[in-house]
Write a structure and sequence with these properties.
Blueprint (H helix, E strand, L loop, with lengths): L4 E6 L3 H12 L4 E4 L11 E5 L2 E4 L10 H6 L9 E3 L3 E4 L5 E4 L3 H11 L1 H25 L11 H15 L3 H12 L2 H6 L5 H8 L15 H9 L2 E2 L2 E2 L3 E3 L4 H13 L3 E3 L4 E7 L2 E7 L4 E9 L3 H7 L8 H9 L6 E8 L18 E4 L3 H12 L8 E5 L14 E8 L11 H17 L5 H4 E7 L1 H8 L35 E3 L13 H14 L4
Parallel strand pairs: 1-2, 1-14, 2-11, 6-16, 14-20
Antiparallel strand pairs: 3-4, 5-10, 6-7, 8-9, 12-13, 13-14, 15-18, 15-19, 16-17, 17-18
Helix pairs in contact: 1-10, 1-17, 3-4, 6-9, 8-13
């Protein structure tokens, strides 16, 4: 049977769509197959309740690469990022910490808690920017293979080494610490205010089954610190119309470049003959052939579900089976009749327009992890809340609001005797009860509630074990080790089969970098202008 396509991309999440768009722009005939009824994977917007549009899973934009926004001209395709200003952390004492994008205001607010920390905060920001400057080019680089004797690969290693040598001794010291320390141990060197350290450390545990005191979480903190919108470090935002608007804009750019996109097209297997990928079989039995297959789904689905074990090298399969997912987060989305009223700052106001963080102390954060270690969801969880309807009224009816709650910890593997189907509503209740300690009116204003567990993330969105990054962002699973040693360059042991999702370098978040980098590598092999 003649090949109908040059490339089939498995999965219409944002990375799959970016991958397809770049390939089509280089003249390739590309088909994207998405299992769900809408595009975007976990970066989707759905009207779960009439009139209320939820960014069901991913809910803020921070890491979307500026070169992708530019190359695909996403603003012309409807992408509009609305800034998310600041982080408000209410405390049980009815005090609070409220950092905003205005430097002077934030300095005064931190000084209210500690003058020493207010001064240190500026120094910390400068140090982190130096770390970001060192790491940032690595995000746009195909990871070198340290085992190679290929001169081009060795030059990349030399480039990284030279950049490291070019840093001041102070920055080198910070960089090494950042790669090895826990978020709290790192922050302890800078700050004394408990609530400040707790809130900042939260970035070090997002989507990772580690506590704020676990080594390696300082790097995850940096990964999230690199948020860029139009190249501005530390900028976070909402997409107007919800997170799905990002995926839809990329999808429109891909279609304009000639990509064919099919939804409700679930893959049953990848066709492999003589060690080469030849096409896919859909769950309805249809066979579609292509020169090349690009998978944006995670390694477990790609290699354990879609391919027979005897088609893969045993040592590679061992590495893939060792790859850690360990989903640790859930989501609770609420449709509200009014705004939550926080005891710390009563009434409506600008404090509700940014992120609202339930992270009142370092001990609180670590105890939340203690529950998870023993197979329970946190009784007092870390919650990151946003009310996108304040910034983007299009997502809720007039006078009503949408509250999105990202929650840690919700371990995929519960202790023996418990399962997520039975625990789902209790988990939702725990989140609402926790918020009620800070905003007592919350229970009276909930019109509808959607609870998403790690098991839901696996079943509905194809994220193994509910990991939002398609695999933990831990140090042994980054750069040339992601997803397996020797296979970080988007190629796989099967000829003409590539990986382009968050399980590849540089990892998760609505970044698009894996999709783009994979496309550039594929075009080297396939021929075609990048």
């Amino acid at each position: 049977m003649a090949n109908q396509y040059d490339v089939i991309v498995i999965g219409g999440g944002h990375n799959g769509l970016v991958n397809a768009a770049y390939l089509a722009r280089a003249g390739k005939k590309v088909l994207v197959l998405e299992r769900r009824h809408i595009l975007g994977g976990a970066a989707c917007t759905e009207e779960v309740f009439p009139g209320f549009k939820f960014s069901v899973c991913s809910y803020v934009v921070s890491l979307l690469r500026p070169e992708i926004i530019r190359d695909l001209d996403l603003p012309r395709h409807g992408l509009e990022i609305l800034p998310l200003d600041g982080t408000f952390t209410p405390m049980p004492s009815s005090d609070y910490l409220w950092r905003v994008n205005d430097h002077g205001k934030t300095h005064r607010e931190i000084a209210r808690h500690s003058r020493v920390d207010a001064e240190a905060y500026d120094e910390f920001g400068k140090a982190m920017q130096a770390m970001c400057r060192f790491v940032k080019p690595i995000l746009s680089m195909v990871p070198p293979d340290p085992n190679t004797l290929n001169p081009r690969e060795l030059m990349k290693l030399l480039f990284i080494g030279k950049r490291f040598q070019g840093m001041s001794s102070y920055d080198k010291y910070n960089q090494v610490q950042l790669m090895t320390m826990s978020a709290i141990d790192f922050l302890d060197q800078w700050f004394e205010t408990d609530v400040l350290k707790a809130t900042m450390s939260a970035s070090g545990i997002i989507g990772t089954f580690l506590g704020v005191r676990s080594p390696g979480t300082a790097y995850v903190l940096l990964h999230h610190y690199m948020g860029e919108i139009d190249g501005a470090f530390r900028a976070w935002g909402f997409a107007r119309g919800g997170t799905g608007a990002i995926s839809n804009a990329i999808g429109d750019a891909a279609r304009e470049a000639g990509v064919e996109i099919r939804t409700q097209a679930a893959i049953a297997k990848i066709i492999v003959k003589d060690g080469k990928a030849k096409g896919v079989v859909l769950s309805n039995g249809d066979e579609i052939y292509a020169e090349t297959i690009s998978s944006s789904v995670d390694p477990r689905l790609t290699f354990n579900k879609f391919i027979e074990a005897d088609q893969l090298p045993a040592d590679f399969l061992e590495d893939i089976n060792r790859f850690k997912y360990r989903g640790s987060s859930g989501k609770v989305n609420m449709a509200l009749d009014a705004l939550p009223n926080f005891k710390a700052i009563p009434g409506p106001g600008a404090h509700l327009r940014g992120a609202i963080s339930i992270s009142p102390s370092v001990e609180y954060m670590e105890r939340a992890y203690d529950d998870a270690k023993y197979g329970n969801f946190s009784r007092k969880p870390y919650i990151d809340m946003v009310i996108p309807s304040l910034t983007d009224p299009s997502v809720a009816p007039p006078g009503k609001h949408v509250l999105s709650c990202f929650v840690q910890y919700a371990p995929y593997k519960l202790r023996p005797g418990l399962n997520w189907d039975d625990q789902k509503e209790a988990f939702g209740d725990t989140v609402v009860n926790t918020i009620a300690e800070y905003a007592p009116n919350i229970k009276d204003i909930i019109l509808h509630r959607q609870v998403i567990t790690p098991l839901d993330l696996e079943r509905e969105w194809g994220l193994s074990e509910g990991n939002i990054f398609q695999g933990e962002l831990s140090l042994e699973q980054l750069f040339f080790l992601r997803p397996a040693p020797g296979y970080a360059r988007f190629r796989t042991p099967i000829q003409n089969l590539y990986m382009c999702g968050s399980a590849t370098h540089p990892g998760g978040g609505i970044m698009g970098a894996p999709g783009r980098l994979a496309a550039l590598e594929m075009l080297k092999d396939l021929g075609g202008a990048a």
